[in-house]
């Protein structure tokens, strides 16, 4: 089987770390900066970074609508940290460009500023047999989820930090910074188990 082509939105943030992890698990990362880069992708990762800046760049590069089309095609899309914010339907009324596809309410910078970043181990039985080490950097949290959203992981106090809704995946934390590929393998399994066929319709 040929390697799955997984796009990594490469406008801002830690896209190189995601690309490195994808290569390590046998996928083919594709850095996405323009609509034509979405052609023939099997899935897409929207990395961490600064969600307001990424949103503005999505508008500037005319990527917002093509990304919405990619999502509606059924191909898996995973947002980490800032990517989770961009996927969300509701970010507490704050005004910024969003993809608005994931039926969750997200609170930005919920754990404080850079100095309040932290790491912890989180059981996520849907993803892996053993707990995953999670790195939170100025992370958002999921305040509420819609009826079709599956909670994959929570902190000890019940705070939701990982969700899935059909072909959409969202994490508050940064699996690409841990050296642990299990979450990327979970996403690749989503891609391999029935995502929509790649299309050249974008761009």
Choose one word for the global shape. Answer: globular
Strand order of the largest sheet: 2-1-3-4-12-11-10
Oligomer: single chain
Count of alpha/pi helices: 5
At CATH's second level, what is the architecture?
3-Layer(aba) Sandwich
Residues in helix, %: 10-25%
- The stretches of 5 or more residues where confidence is low (pLDDT under 50) are 195-203
Largest sheet: 7 strands, mixed
The CATH topology label is Rossmann fold
Ends apart, CA distance between termini? 27 Å
Order of helices and strands: EHEEHHEHEEEEEEEEH
CA radius of gyration: 15 Å
CATH superfamily: Class I glutamine amidotransferase (GATase) domain
Beta content:
25-35%
Structural class of the helices, strands and pairings?
A: alpha/beta
How many domains, as an integer? 1
On the 0-100 scale, what is the average pLDDT? 89
- How many beta-strand segments? 12
Q: Can you tell me the CATH class?
A: Alpha Beta
Summarize this structure briefly:
The protein is an alpha/beta fold and 203 residues long. It has helices spanning 15-24, 51-60, 64-72, 82-87, 182-192; strands spanning 5-9, 28-32, 43-46, 77-80, 88-90, 102-107, 118-122, 132-136, 141-145, 150-154, 160-165, 168-171.
């Amino acid at each position: 089987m040929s390697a799955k082509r997984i796009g990594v939105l490469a406008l801002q943030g830690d896209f190189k770390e995601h690309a490195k992890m994808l290569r390590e698990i046998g996928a083919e990362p594709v850095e996405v900066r323009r609509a034509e880069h979405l052609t023939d992708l099997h899935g897409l990762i929207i990395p961490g970074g600064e969600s307001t800046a990424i949103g503005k760049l999505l508008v500037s590069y005319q990527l917002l609508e093509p990304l919405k089309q990619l999502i509606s095609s059924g191909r898996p899309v995973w947002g980490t940290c800032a990517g989770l914010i961009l996927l969300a339907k509701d970010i507490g009324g704050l005004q910024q460009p969003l993809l608005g596809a994931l039926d969750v309410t997200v609170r930005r910078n919920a754990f404080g500023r850079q100095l309040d970043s932290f790491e912890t181990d989180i059981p996520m039985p849907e993803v892996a047999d053993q707990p995953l080490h999670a790195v939170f950097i100025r992370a958002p949290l999921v305040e509420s989820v819609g009826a079709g959203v599956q909670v994959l992981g929570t902190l000890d106090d019940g705070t939701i930090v990982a969700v899935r809704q059909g072909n959409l995946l969202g994490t508050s934390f940064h699996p690409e910074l841990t050296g642990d590929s299990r979450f990327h393998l979970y996403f690749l399994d989503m891609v391999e188990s029935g995502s929509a066929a790649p299309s050249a319709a974008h761009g």
